[in-house]
Amino acid sequence: MRNDMLRFATLQLRDSHLAEDMVQDTMIAALNKAEQFGGRSSVKTWVFAILRNNVLDAIKQRSRTVNAGDYIAEGESMDSAFDTLFKANEHWTPAARPTDWGDPEDALREQQFWKVFDACLTRLPENTARVFMMREFLELDSNEICDTLSISMSNCHVILHRARNGLRRCLESNWFSEGSPAC
């Protein structure tokens, strides 16, 4: 998951050092906010949502800084976080009880699809993938994308069209073709 996060952040921020910091900050934030995880999605989806919001903030405000005092000292966070999950008899507290994981075969099929999708996205030209991710992952509207990248609206629409066609062709040949797993 970390490699996927790092690739996403690097592509969006175009700064490998800032992307590494952003991924680390996201992981720390996820650990600090673990009690807020409702289980309505996978952990990966939840963590990526945190990363997406962090990257979006960084894109909009490059001068944003992280206050180191917001983080609990190393070693303390893990113990205190786990203590709140269990009762004195070492059983789960009702609020922390794990949720049903669903059908493992469906989860595996979905995981395999996203691996193929990620491979297809990686095959797109860098700028095409970047615009697509800004639109679909960061949920920026076309005006924000154009302002951020200093491109025209028509160029943005052409890039998005090419990205969707490239992904469609790649997925058709690598996922939806005969003999591939159906989703």
From TrEMBL:
Does the keyword section mention S-adenosyl-L-methionine? Answer: no
Residue ranges of domain RNA polymerase sigma-70 region in the record: 4-65
What keywords are assigned to this protein? Answer: DNA-binding, Sigma factor, Transcription, Transcription regulation
Under which name does UniProt file this protein?
Sigma-70 family RNA polymerase sigma factor
Which BP terms in the Gene Ontology apply to this protein? DNA-templated transcription initiation
| PANTHER family (UniProt xref) | RNA POLYMERASE ECF-TYPE SIGMA FACTO, RNA POLYMERASE SIGMA FACTOR HI_1459-RELATED
Q: Which family does it belong to?
A: Belongs to the sigma-70 factor family. ECF subfamily.
Q: InterPro entries attached here?
A: RNA_pol_sigma-24-rel, RNA_pol_sigma-70-like, RNA_pol_sigma-70_dom, RNA_pol_sigma70_r2, RNA_pol_sigma70_r4_t2, RNA_pol_sigma_r2, RNA_pol_sigma_r3/r4-like, WH-like_DNA-bd_sf
List residues of the RNA polymerase sigma factor 70 region 4 type domain. 117-164
Identify the species of origin: Denitromonas halophila
Q: Name one GO molecular function term.
A: sigma factor activity
Has the keyword Signal been applied to this entry?
no
